[in-house]
Design a protein that fits this description.
- The chain has 448 residues and is α/β, with parallel strands linked by helices.
- The chain has three domains: 3-207, P-loop containing nucleotide triphosphate hydrolases (Rossmann fold), CATH 3.40.50; 217-383, Rossmann fold (3-Layer(aba) Sandwich), CATH 3.40.50; 393-443.
- 43% of the residues lie in helices and 16% in strands.
- It contains 17 helices and 15 strands.
- It has helices spanning 10-19, 26-36, 51-62, 79-93, 111-120, 130-138, 155-160, 164-171, 192-198, 229-239, 252-264, 278-289, 324-330, 351-359, 382-385, 395-406, 412-447; strands spanning 41-45, 72-75, 102-105, 125-128, 149-152, 179-183, 203-207, 217-223, 245-248, 269-272, 295-298, 313-316, 340-346, 365-370, 373-376.
- Helix 2 (26-36) runs parallel beside helix 3 (51-62), helix 3 (51-62) crosses helix 4 and helix 10 crosses helix 11.
- It is globular and about 70 Å long.
- The protein starts with 9 loop residues before the first helix and ends with a helix.
- Bound molecules: adenosine monophosphate.
């Protein structure tokens, strides 16, 4: 399937071209025709499936720029998620021949200013967090009642964070025939009354996330353990024999620093960043293509679009601020079924973006450098996960787990879980008794 089959207006294709999307994802293939037909949809899809474009493209395509009223309302449960949606929407409408106004309404921003702006003009596309959008609507400033489509993105998270009442109140303001699109990774029981109340004959589409990284890429995660990153990068580059390795950093200053360090260690290194003139960059790129260099240090300028064949290693000296770039960077290797290795260095402050990357469906293999070799190591979350592993089980249960691994019988998982739960209960009971005993003896002692 191609994007052409959706018969969008030209400007949508221009936006897609700029994004570099070649063909629709599975989510887009399934959802766009349904949304174009005006159906209510429950999209059970996760981040990484391309769902954002799946609803934004057909909805933006249907906006009538000459009507200066709110036509589409989209809610997200956090400011960050709203911001992401807003950025994608802005990128698309930037190509529209007649202006399509997109406004973001989130908490923590200047409400008064927004109220004033709304007196002059209404946006056609509203994106924001439920509380602030409802607030603006209740003030009578944002007129949402004529909207033709309402999207609730990340509905399960909206529910978890306690924003469903706001979304409900908002939904009550629309006309009965509004098109409702609800996206949620899961459909918890508590969400069902809302769906029943507002959605008419909804179609439920379950979509798995697309494979973000090529199968041929080994994706390693290495903790710096407080060591100097430049030194670590040097080690990583010289342990194996990379055919061509690209080190990515977030700023041109960092690229300069890393390049200088590696050059001082005697490596022949090329660098690419926005501070280098386009002419010089072109020259360097040509040399890289000719394999004059084995090592390249670059900013994200080289992560998108620039195609260098045969990159065997990608090293992320830092995690990119925009996580999409992680995929672009790592995707520089493992092309055309060739093997590739991506290595991301991380320190404790990177925990959050790494968790976010994992939520997007990226799987890391934890590694460390030991005696000059790269070896597998334990998962950084092992403490959290330990309760679930065999390490902590009593010997008899461990034997049970091991034996069962070989001969898988139906229901074995349940049985093991039952055993583990039983053990946990016993442990807790013992612990409670121990605490009671020590409390008693303390009491006694204090009386003496
Ligand atoms: P989402 O699931 O909407 O968060 O999208 C996940 C990632 O896929 C984002 O980085 C999008 O920019 C990207 N993406 C969306 N649609 C496509 C497509 N058709 N081709 C390639 N990448 C896409």
């Amino acid at each position: 399937m191609t994007f052409e089959s959706f018969m969008f207006q030209d400007f949508i294709y221009q936006a897609l071209k700029e994004s570099g999307f070649e063909e629709p994802t599975e989510a887009q293939e399934k959802l766009i025709p349904l949304i174009q037909k005006g159906r209510d949809v429950i999209g059970q899809s996760q981040t990484g499936s391309g769902k954002t474009h799946a609803f934004l493209l057909p909805l933006i395509d249907q906006i009538e720029p000459e009507k200066k009223e709110v036509q589409v309302v989209i809610t997200a449960p956090s400011r960050e998620l709203a911001e992401q949606l807003y950025q994608v929407a802005k990128q698309v409408v930037a190509f529209a021949p007649s202006e399509i106004r997109v406004t973001k309404f989130v908490g923590g921003t200047d409400k008064q200013r927004q109220l004033e702006q709304l007196q002059h003009r209404q946006p056609q596309l509203v994106i924001g967090t439920p509380g602030r959008i409802l607030d603006m609507a209740n003030e009578g400033a944002l007129l949402i009642h004529k909207s033709q489509a309402f999207v609730v993105d990340e509905a399960d998270m909206t529910l978890d964070l306690g924003f469903l009442p706001e979304v409900d109140q908002m939904a009550a303001k629309f006309s009965d025939d509004i098109q409702m699109l609800v996206f949620s990774a899961t459909v918890p029981q508590k969400l069902r009354p809302f769906l029943k109340k507002y959605l008419t004959r909804p179609l439920i589409e379950e979509i798995k996330p697309k494979n973000l990284l090529s199968e041929t890429i080994e994706n390693w995660l290495i903790s710096t353990k407080g060591q100097d990153k430049k030194q670590l990068i040097y080690q990583l580059l010289t342990i194996g024999q990379p055919y061509l390795a690209v080190v990515f950093a977030n700023t041109k200053e960092r690229v300069d620093e890393i390049t200088e360090f590696l050059q001082n260690q005697g490596l022949k290194v090329a660098k690419i960043h926005g501070g280098i003139s386009p002419r010089e960059r072109k020259r360097v790129m040509r040399q890289i293509h000719q394999l004059d260099y084995q090592y390249v240090v670059a900013t994200d300028l080289a992560a998108r679009g620039i195609d260098i064949e045969g990159i065997s290693h990608v090293i992320n000296a830092e995690i990119p601020r925009d996580l999409d770039f992680f995929i672009h960077r790592v995707g520089r290797t493992g092309r055309n079924q060739l093997k590739g290795t991506a290595i991301t260095l991380y320190e404790p402050s990177d925990e959050r973006p790494i968790n976010d990357l994992e939520k997007m469906g990226i799987v890391f293999e934890p590694k460390e450098i030991k005696n000059g070799e790269i070896v597998s190591t334990y998962d950084r979350n092992r403490r959290k996960k330990r309760e679930k592993t065999t390490e902590e089980l009593a010997p008899e249960t461990m034997g049970y787990v091991k034996k069962q691994k070989k001969q898988v019988k139906p229901g074995y998982k349940k049985k093991i879980k039952h055993e583990i739960d039983k053990k946990d209960q016993e442990k807790r009971k013992l612990e409670r008794r121990r605490q009671q005993r020590s409390a008693k003896s303390q009491k006694k002692n204090s009386r003496r």
